[in-house]
Batch of 2 targets.
Target 1
Amino acid sequence: KAGVTQTPRYLIKTRGQQVTLSCSPISGHRSVSWYQQTPGQGLQFLFEYFSETQRNKGNFPGRFSGRQFSNSRSEMNVSTLELGDSALYLCASSTTLGRSYNEQFFGPGTRLTVL
Amino acid sequence: AQKVTQAQTEISVVEKEDVTLDCVYETRDTTYYLFWYKQPPSGELVFLIRRNSFDEQNEISGRYSWNFQKSTSSFNFTITASQVVDSAVYFCALTPNTGGFKTIFGAGTRLFVKA
């Protein structure tokens, strides 16, 4: 079974631009979560999508948004980039059975650098 | 408030030593899930273990063992006879049972195992 894939792996943007990152979950996984990892703040939860609906959201400004498609693939978008948005963005997928939370499988991440 | 504290920022041991990584969590939920993940230098998080709040049984998997104590809100991880390949950052994480993933990660403990 293929793992979680994220594209692109590396991205360099300038302040004020916008960026779209893509995540393909493991086949059959309907839950996709996004995390931001920085040296200063660690791993922070951005949002989670399940069956094309945002189910949970972290404490990030509205410049961070996402969506999920019917095939469970997900994208996240960051508009009006700031220097502080430079980070490793990780996507994770999981199966959820009722109210049981299984482990999340993480992709390799997209390294975003904002200049 | 939900919180995960990994007080040990970095630990350095010599190969074959035993090492324990501490994790203390805070949550008001009665049902929740705890996880440990490993992030090797390659960057991709790897799932190690999941525990739900109703299962306080300790677990051993090869050289890895976990001690879950609700009374002290701790979920500690021990590596027995450490090896150089164990060098990585280890994250403890909490997923409250709020309907969907909203995982809170600890800051991580960087483990160096020297030959």
Target 2
Amino acid sequence: KQEVTQIPAALSVPEGENLVLNCSFTDSAIYNLQWFRQDPGKGLTSLLLIQSSQREQTSGRLNASLDKSSGRSTLYIAASQPGDSATYLCAVFVGGGKLQFGAGTQVVVTP
Amino acid sequence: DAGVIQSPRHEVTEMGQEVTLRCKPISGHNSLFWYRQTMMRGLELLIYFNNNVPIDDSGMPEDRFSAKMPNASFSTLKIQPSEPRDSAVYFCASRLGGAGTGELFFGEGSRLTVL
């Protein structure tokens, strides 16, 4: 069974620092991996989708890498801002169209 | 695009009552998912549909839960009878694609409280 782990569970950084969020998965047979952010009381907002054939994906200040062989993905957020405070979740698509989620990393960016 | 639309946003009901949650997926998407989120268990997949057909309902907790997708633009999740332990946020999500290709988009969720 695919297991997705996100460490650390919580992270606090001062504004302007780069954020590095980690996601690991146990089975490398994935179709793709998706990063989301969730604000309190809100739904999940898609940030980046990386297909299994890709090594990385970029959108603005966000960059996500994927290393299937080692079962890891990393989300980088450059020059963090207080508005980046949220919970970040990664999810991998496994067989049958299912998405397996990690528990998330709660990020606080202090002014 | 209006995104995934869920209703109601909040529902408070008493134990034993029937609850119906509704979802309108993004137009053109052919896969629809129902998730439940709690502090204790995180996000749990309840059921997902592909081309309006239920593909996997192994996450549905028990017979009190049922889901339908009568057409490509509408789905319901019903709980009858409801119990306090059903209190959670229920999310609907949709995507375009087959086994694992498309980006998944979530609705804002329906927060259910069963007293």
